[in-house]
Amino acid sequence: MNVSGIVRLKDGESVLGIVRRFPIVHLRPAILSILLVGTPFFLMIPLFRFGRIGVGVFALSVSVGLILALRIAVRWHWTVLIVTSRRLVDVEQQGLFDRLVSEVPFERIQDISYARRGFWGTVFGFGTVSVRIGASARLEQHHIRRPRDVHHLIVEAVERADSGVREERAGETGGGGKGAKTGLRGDEIDGSAEALGGDDDETGRFLADSFGGRRNDVLERE
Fold first, then answer.
1. Are residues 47 and 90 part of one domain?
2. pLDDT of 209
3. What does pTM read for this prediction?
4. Are residues 15 and 92 in the same domain?
5. Complete DSSP assignment for the chain
6. Do the domain assignments include residue 168?
7. Residue 58 located in a structural domain
8. 36 and 94 share one domain
9. Label partner for 182 (CA 20 to 30 A): which of 16, 108, 205, 222?
10. Model pLDDT for residues 170-208, shown as the tens digit of each residue
11. Is 166 among the domain residues?
């Protein structure tokens, strides 16, 4: 599935998984579509005896059944939960032409849970994945196949993203601290040389050059 038509990935962002609903959720409309397409063929001879009216009923039934089947296929294909390395993207295909897309950055996620209930959910292995965003807001995906695996995928993605952010912040803090420490040591050395020199300019310059050379050696070793 090409997600570029749904969401634009950011720099360094990658798609970790695409989750769809279990097809059983569309069982009833699928049965209706099959009946609308198949029944007229069994009744084709009696219908054609009515002339144009029979032909019209035949064509209408088949057309409605095919459109319904196309709608089911489009909804199943494009109603997905996209898990990237930075966020969750929920895509709800509400018809042939209507689509609702919402996204949740990982830093807004507070809790992730899953549930598998009922006889059919246990037999076919589908359930619900719920993501708590705030105090009352939730993002829920129902009839998800293998909800435990999806839950594990999201949890790992969130933990990996949090770990990357912490390492980046730690690197920035460590780099800044090292530079400050090195600069302070050099200032202390120069200040000590000038203090030892006192009013004697020649002695002060000699000590400053001597300690300055040692300071450069220290900096090079660091």
1. yes
2. 52
3. 0.68
4. yes
5. --GGGT-PPPTT--EEEEEEB-GGGGHHHHHHHHHHHHHHHHTHHHHHTTTHHHHHHHHHHHHHHHHHHHHHHHHHHH-EEEEESSEEEEEEE-SSS-EEEEEEEGGG--EEEEE--HHHHHHHTEEEEEEE-SSS-EEEEEEEESHHHHHHHHHHHHHHHHHHHHHHHHHHHHHHHHHHHHHHHHHHHHHHHHHHHTT-HHHHHHHHHHHHHHHHHHHHH-
6. no
7. yes
8. yes
9. 205
10. 777 765 544 444 443 444 434 444 444 444 555 445 444
11. no
